[in-house]
């Protein structure tokens, strides 16, 4: 199973140095937060995106996908009552899809909690309809580019909109596009779901709705730096992989870097590789 590192963990290193360090640690890919490249995705030309892909390739990495999509530029929202603001947001989402394709990625992760939380003066049903329209447009572009746009469930400490896999599957089902799926973020799942992550995997992956997994602890540190134990999670993922229900990648996405970004990244890959090696040897 291939493992990616979310590249903001290695900021403020230049992108080429991020690639060198991640490859040296044993990662297979980088999952890129576009705001770490430029503040506006429209400022990243296709030629520049191809150059980022080349740099990663030269270090033995791929760019697996994009995440943290709507952090920049400022003022984006998929639930705003302002139709012009939503339209501007959709254009950014579509450009993100195009960039992901040029970078050689396979998926995009739509987290961005502040940009989807129900605004004051709006109801949950109104926000749902607005978000559905925006996500449907992004899904159409993703489908055209043969990518998957993943709506990420997040905990209520971050947003009041789409907190569980079941919530996300409802949106995915309503839109009904192969370009839109959902995913599991272990940190969010550990806070918001009523069942364990292995149970989530076994319940939802056979449905085909889970296209990606991010590994992190509910304490927001790297895998292995908290109470969540990832042995059962990785065994469940490997079982799904063998059964043909999952062909994705594991992405390491901590938010609290202990002792620092590089140290957290190094610990995480060592912890995960150790579990995978032990699991494979047992089989």
List the helices and strands and how they pair.
Elements lengths: L2 E4 L8 H11 L3 E4 L13 H13 L3 E5 L16 H21 L3 E4 L13 H21 L3 E4 L13 H11 L4 E6 H7 L4 H8 L5 E6 L15 H12 L7 E3 L8 H22 L1
Parallel strand pairs: 1-2, 1-8, 2-3, 3-4, 4-5, 5-6, 6-7, 7-8
Helix pairs in contact: 3-4, 7-8
Key terms:
TIM Barrel; 13% strand; 9 helices; 283 residues; alpha/beta; 8-stranded parallel β-barrel
Structure description:
The protein is 45% helix and 13% strand. With 283 residues, the protein is α/β, with parallel strands linked by helices. It has a single domain, classed as TIM Barrel (Alpha-Beta Barrel). An 8-stranded parallel beta barrel has the order 1-2-3-4-5-6-7-8, surrounded by 8 helices. Helix 3 packs parallel to helix 4. The chain is globular and about 55 Å long.
Quickly describe the structure:
With 283 residues, the chain is an alpha/beta fold. Helices cover 45% and strands 13% of the residues.
Quaternary: single chain
Number of helices: 9
Sheet with the most strands, sense and barrel status: 8 strands, parallel, barrel
Sequence stretches where pLDDT stays below 50 over 5 or more residues: none
Which percent range fits the helix content?
Answer: 40-55%
Instruction: Please identify, by name, the CATH architecture.
Output: Alpha-Beta Barrel
Structural class: alpha/beta
Number of domains: 1
Straight-line N-to-C gap = 15 Å
């Amino acid at each position: 199973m291939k493992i990616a590192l979310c590249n903001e963990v290695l900021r403020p290193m230049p992108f080429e140095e991020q690639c060198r360090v991640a490859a040296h640690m044993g990662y297979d890919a980088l999952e890129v937060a576009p705001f770490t490249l430029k503040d506006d995705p429209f400022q990243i030309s296709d030629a520049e995106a191809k150059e980022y892909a080349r740099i990663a390739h030269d270090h033995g990495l791929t760019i697996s996908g994009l995440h943290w999509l709507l952090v920049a530029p400022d003022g984006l929202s998929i639930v705003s009552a302002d139709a012009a603001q939503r339209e501007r947001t959709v254009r950014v989402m579509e450009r993100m899809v195009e960039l992901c394709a040029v970078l050689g990625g396979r998926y995009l992760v739509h987290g961005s909690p502040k940009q989807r939380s129900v605004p004051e003066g709006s109801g949950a049903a109104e926000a749902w309809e607005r978000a559905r329209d925006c996500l449907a447009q992004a899904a159409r572009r993703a489908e055209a580019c043969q990518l998957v746009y993943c709506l990420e469930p997040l905990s209520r400490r971050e947003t009041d909109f789409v907190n569980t896999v079941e919530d996300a599957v409802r949106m995915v089902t309503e839109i009904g596009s192969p370009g839109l799926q959902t995913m599991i973020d272990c940190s969010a799942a550990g806070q918001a779901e009523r069942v364990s992550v292995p149970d989530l995997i076994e319940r939802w992956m056979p449905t085909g709705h889970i296209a990606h997994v991010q590994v992190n602890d509910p304490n927001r540190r790297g895998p292995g730096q908290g109470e969540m134990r990832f042995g059962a999670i990785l065994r469940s993922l490997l079982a799904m992989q063998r059964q043909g229900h999952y062909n994705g990648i594991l992405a390491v996405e901590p938010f609290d870097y202990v002792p620092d970004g590089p140290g957290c990244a190094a610990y995480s890959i060592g912890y995960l590789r150790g579990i995978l090696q032990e699991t494979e040897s047992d089989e």
